Amino acid sequence: MTDRQTAEGTVSYLFEMGALKRGKRTGWWIAGVKDPETIAEHSWRTAIIGSILAMMEGADAAKVALLCTFHDTQETRIGDIPWIGRRYIQAAANQEVTADQVADAHACVAAGIKAVVDEYETGESLEVLVAHDADKLECMIQGLEYLQQGYPNAQEWVDSTRAKLKTPSAQALAEAAQDMSASEWQRTYLR
């Protein structure tokens, strides 16, 4: 391929990632949420949570943020599959989708993105553990927000994701979040 073709392949990937800003998280529809968050919104807060958990756990915060940023990028092609549907999906699907997504990109970009996704999917490092906890904690916090907005079926997501948290830091933050209002952060400024 020419430099122009790989540049176009890389930009094509960037345009594809823009679709994540429009793709809704489907599990929340099962819980009755009428206008759920997008995949990109979920991934953004997951990266923030991952960075914070990494700082608390002594892991590499930049690496965790990177893992979290790319953890759901395959959903442009396979959609957001809720937990109930995951048992029907081949475990290696995310790596296969990623390989197709970056097939025409610059070789260094393709290799880098494939390595990040592969590590998230199969790695066992502290950073991977923290990234997975960040994904679950974000889902739990989003569920708490939906509960506060009047969606009682979100409680199942809150409970199931909280039960899967592994790191002490994620468990501590989950405990703290459980009894807080989503607007708690602004109370200090309203006084």
Could you please describe the fold and organization of this structure?
With 191 residues, this protein is mostly helical. The protein has a single domain, classed as Hypothetical protein af1432. It is 69% helix and 0% strand. It contains 12 helices and no strands. The chain starts with a helix and ends with a helix. The model has no long low-confidence stretch (mean pLDDT 93).
The end-to-end span amounts to 61 Å
- Percent helix, as a range, is 55-70%
Our count of helices gives 12
Mean pLDDT, all residues: 93
Number of strands: 0
Low-confidence stretches: none
Organism: Kitasatospora kazusensis
Domain HD/PDEase: 35-149
Catalytic activity: a 2'-deoxyribonucleoside 5'-phosphate + H2O = a 2'-deoxyribonucleoside + phosphate
Cofactor: Co(2+); Mn(2+)
Summarize, please.
The chain has 191 residues and is mostly helical. The chain is 69% helix and 0% strand.
Give me the secondary-structure topology.
Blueprint: H1 3-18, H2 27-30, H3 39-57, H4 61-70, H5 75-78, H6 83-86, H7 93-101, H8 107-122, H9 126-148, H10 155-163, H11 168-178, H12 184-190
Helix pairs in contact: 3-4, 3-9, 4-8, 4-9, 7-8, 9-10, 9-11
